[in-house]
């Protein structure tokens, strides 16, 4: 999936890269701040073709880690999301003993002399670790959200606020730079971090960004989102014209993932009726496709049964039972690089899909090659699926593997034949009972007509079938006529609506068709 997603957007990203040429120029030796309450004279302490670092007079000259780290972050950012302006350089400003937190600016903004800026205080910046890295990387995240693909603005900002995008951006940067210690540290900081928006006890990282990142393309997913946004979302010149609503937010991320993410959004945020109308409208207004393969089968490891392993050499806290505890923060470890693990169900199940989740550290311990077998008695085994050279590039990454099977087995065994190290570990194991698949983007098969259109006070709706469910929204997805059951030929009163464009959503036998209506 990662390779497919990358190829799908490669051409557009390449065009963006080619359209902006970086010009090496010497940053000024001093820079007078003239924004907000900032009025310091800054001194340039380092620069190269990608980065210029400025300190105020209170920053210790012993602080040198930004020279390499901020350059690495910026180079990685450009390699993923493309260029940012003609100069294409990051200006990293550091203060000590003044100002709190930090703020960004981009090459679109004259207030910071049309430079890509991270302006951070209060320091002292002497550790070059932990929060020093987190805060400075966070500000780069804001440059990405507000100036990617040559378009200015952040239509998603009212939804995810100041820091939610930065949570997954920071994680990806640490992954991309190979900073495994920071990957684990940041994950552990974010996984239990909750917010009160869009509802109480929302876990943005745990329930939204990390799952879609881990399961739908990783770094490519993040870039794809901004590609789609630049392609499709309304703009005035080089500026986004308006903010997003929640239905649009989920639709654009679904496009980036090439998978319908409504179920994940429902888990993470809830799914009010208003969002459903917005989501339908977004699919109609921005008709890029995405698949939605849904397996309705159960994870049979949640239905009783037991798990066992070939070897009993695991540390006490890393036993084989952790594989089915539904927590990717625990793991199973054996001091062998080849071993089998086996799940025994309470009865026979037809399984055609399974998942493996990588553990918290040590990439060399990840499974690499294996064979899945099934058995009805635990003695005679049938090969069901064989994999070789598989890769888990991210920690806590859940990968799903499908295969063809129509036979019910009680025992399912994974025999891992090798990896690149001397130990073997994995966090979670799931086996899914055979289910059904549907397509999210199948074109509606509803035959209908609305008239008169344009309309003044009422509209008549004809359709094939005896009854349908009708919803009418404005162009922002707000419901203006309550959802109701209607019959073919029924007249709908519109006299209370203002003049404008509305969307009529007609659902017949589970299939929805959306049509535009002009109210005069």
TrEMBL record:
Listed InterPro entries: FA58C, Galactose-bd-like_sf, Secre_tail
Record domain F5/8 type C: where: 315-428
Taxonomic superkingdom: Bacteria
Keywords, ordered alphabetically: Signal
Signal peptide (from-to): 1-24
Pfam families on file: F5_F8_type_C, Por_Secre_tail
Domain Secretion system C-terminal sorting per the UniProt entry, residue ranges: 450-516
Name of the protein described by the UniProt record: T9SS type A sorting domain-containing protein
Organism per entry: Dawidia cretensis
